[in-house]
């Protein structure tokens, strides 16, 4: 579980990132979760964009993604979700 200080640190790191994944009409599926897990292993921190035509609300999508990928939900702002998962082999971010 992340502390408030760690979440603030990760939010500042994520500010300059662009969303890599988009959740659209079909919602969250197993294939997407697998791809996001792989990307988290490579990057540790990433953004996911929830499109206007997504049938689920952004909080539900954020919950499904964080549970499915076993990642920490850093922030949901607007239609963007920020996820963090410590990499096992490619550790780049050291938390305060």
TrEMBL record:
InterPro entries: RNA-binding_CRM (IPR001890), RNA-binding_domain (IPR051925), RNA-binding_YhbY (IPR017924), YhbY-like_sf (IPR035920). PROSITE patterns: CRM (PS51295). SMART domains: CRS1_YhbY (SM01103). Coiled coil: none annotated. One of its GO terms (molecular function) is RNA binding. Pfam families: CRS1_YhbY. NCBIfam families: RNA_bind_YhbY. This is RNA-binding protein. It comes from Priestia filamentosa.
